[in-house]
Amino acid sequence: NKIARDALCVVTHRENPIANISQETIQAIFSGRVRSWSQVPGAQASGPIDLVVRTAASGTQDAFQNIFMGPSLRVSSSARTERSNGLQALRIKSNPQAIGYASFNFVSGLHSIPYRGVRCSLRNAKSGQYLGARNFWMVTRGKARGPVASFLRWSRRSGSARRIIQRNWVPLR
What we know:
The chain is α/β, with parallel strands linked by helices. It is about 35% helix and about 20% strand. The protein is built from six helices and seven strands. Strands 1, 2, 3, 4, 5, 6 and 7 form a seven-stranded mixed β-sheet that branches. Helix 2 links the parallel strand 2 (about 50-55) and strand 3 (about 80). The longest helix has 12 residues, at about 145-155. The two termini are about 15 Å apart.
């Protein structure tokens, strides 16, 4: 049950405001091929790169893998894993050498790196310019029934639900 789209942003500490990042650079950093900030164009940090990612069971991790890494590369096993978006964001906020990714709702206080020259924003995700967007799903076992079906209808049709979605994600229509 697709209800919205979400922008997935590549983020660093505010003291490391990289102006732009390519998919190739993301893949090199997150696969562990590039381990020092001196190898990253535009980086303000120095020293080793600290990767901070979500756990393998996370939908955010799965989206990052599919959108940014592709089918043949995997995130380095040396990356620190966090069990929630909030914990991941806190770790990156407290470490000037960290890099990770976050759902748009969790980028406050972080530097969101423009991807392929396009800023990670709800407006750019909605227009299709930002290529780091994913579908946001509510998953049910089989066809939704009863209160769950009512909630899904509300989330798709209600003006108040639409306002919540517009503040946090990209509406489908």
